[in-house]
What we know:
Largest sheet: none
Radius of gyration: 15 Å
Strand content: under 5%
Number of strands: 0
Number of domains: 2
Order of helices and strands: HHHHHHHH
CATH topology of the largest domain: AhpD-like
CATH class of the largest domain: Mainly Alpha
Helix content: over 70%
Amino acid sequence: MPDDRYRRGLAQLEAVSGAQGAAVVQSLDDIAPDLGRYIVEFAYGDIFMRPGLDLKIREIATVAALTAMGTAQPQLKVHIQAALRVGATREELVETIVQMVPYAGFPAALNAIAVARDVFADA
């Protein structure tokens, strides 16, 4: 039976990402179940549950970080979808990506805009 930290994290993950977040975690069951548990417990049960930022700001910060990384397009897609789900606008997300240009460069921003375009088209 999952502990409170896992249950709390899973509830937060589902609130932010809907069924898609849980599907990502479940996709790890056959190869790296502990990785899925770490995502749920740490990222969502601990970090996303902290006071001080609402879910919209947390997702915008996550989109900025993933944009700056430039190597996490699948995760960026999930978090752009989540940001929209928790109240971020398309304009806020585009501006967040553009804001990363001086820090991460044009290629990272262009890649992120391509992901955003796909998410917006599917929404």
